[in-house]
Amino acid sequence: MSDVNNKNKEIKEEEEVKEQQKENNTEVNDDVDTKVKKETSSNPEKEDTSVEEAKKVEQSQEKEMTGEKTDIFEGVEKKGLWGLLHIYSSPNNIVLHLTDITGSETIAMAYGGQMVKADKDKPTPYAAIRGVDKIVEVMKARNIAGVDVRVRGPGGQDGPLFPGKAAQIAIKQLIRRNVKVGRITDVTPIPFGGCRPSKSKRKVYMS
Questions:
Q1: 3-state class of 158 per DSSP?
Q2: CA-based angle 97:98:100, to the nearest 5?
């Protein structure tokens, strides 16, 4: 009987210890909650910062919907409205095509024939510089902060697989005019397989 009584006493003592621990934990939690409430009531700046962060998130979502960028790519901070500049440069001409960020809406165009009179001057760096100046004026009027550039050469089966000499000059002129340039990609079409070759000529044997 003495062993049974001792076990019952031990069980009761363990239960009492657990109840005391629970009471202590609830008291600590209540103290923490009261301290947090006092801090928030005494520091309304924290509430203001949370509201400001929520506003920033909403503004970033709105900018994403309208095509405005706020990210950082290769050290270029993208703020405001951005567009796409398509540069087609061949041995015979240069075409500059400014669109929105989706590429579906044309904003401005410029090509070598508008900038020079002689056909031989269409693919020259001079025509590229004047074309970029025209594009930049339209960008300032539309409040476009920067562009992503897509460079294209003739490509294909017969054309050269690299852009003309005016493409590089056009990108340099963009930077000189303080236009932010983001991603530069080469979208020249590359042939794969090609067309069926023409059949060989019939050999004629002279008798």
A1: coil
A2: 135
For the chain, the farthest-separated pair of C-alpha atoms sits apart, in whole angstroms, at 134
Distance of CA 47 to the CA centre of its chain: 32
* C-alpha span between 184 and 170 (Å, rounded): 12
Q: Report the phi/psi class of residue 143: left, alpha or beta, with left for phi > 0 and alpha for psi in -120 to 50.
A: left
Residue type, 48: D
Matching residue, tokens 């963009």: 174
Q: pTM of the entire structure?
A: 0.60
Question: Given the structure tokens 């004047």, which residue do they identify?
Answer: 130
- The owner of tokens 């930049």 is 136
pLDDT in tens, 14-33: 777 777 766 666 665 565 46
180-186 β-sheet, strand order: 106-111, 94-100, 81-89, 144-152, 180-186
